[in-house]
Amino acid sequence: MEKRNFDLLFKKELERIKGTRPTLLLHVCCGPCSSNVLKELCEQFEITILYANSNIYPEKEYQRRFLELMDFIQQFNQDYSQSIQVIEEPYRPLEFLNHLSPLKEEKEGGKRCYLCYSLRMESAYRYASIHHFDYWTTVLSVSPHKNSQWINQIGESKPQDKTCFLYADFKKNNGYKKSVDMASQYGLYRQNYCGCLFSYTDMLERTAKEKE
Questions:
Q1: Which residues pair with 51 in a beta bridge?
Q2: Would the pTM count as exceeding 0.85?
Q3: For residues 115 and 154, what is the distance between their CA atoms, to the nearest angstrom?
């Protein structure tokens, strides 16, 4: 399938809605990934964050990322004169793991990751539809390790009548570097694995090899 320029679609949509400030539900996985994305979007959208990340293992890590996000949003709201609220979806790790386990042998970045994107984005779409947000999207595309084509195709596959998916490739225009710099500026904890049990196990194996 031919790659599409979702960054261009993003810019065209921002130009189209310029001056209107519609509501946006933003799925967020952690503070660092949300940092520069929020900076780019907060003047054009009235943002609400959805923390829907039952993939994260173990629970201690889940709670650390959530609390770090909450602290960051409090500081961000003060620094940028915003009133962004954070909604936390219930943490259901076993249910999520049951979905991913049949694909446990898949390499990082493969079909298992596609399913993980899909499940979390489905939560965001569902919440945005029920609560009548004008737009919804996710910060996942800011990571150079995540497939922005897949992410946008998943968003595009959802019905657009109740809420519209905002196409974006947030890693473009040095988006990832800006998020790293901003995370450093705010002293945010930056995790060394994506989140799920399988990426956690891979991280432990890498760390052990590095110590050999």
A1: 88
A2: yes
A3: 10
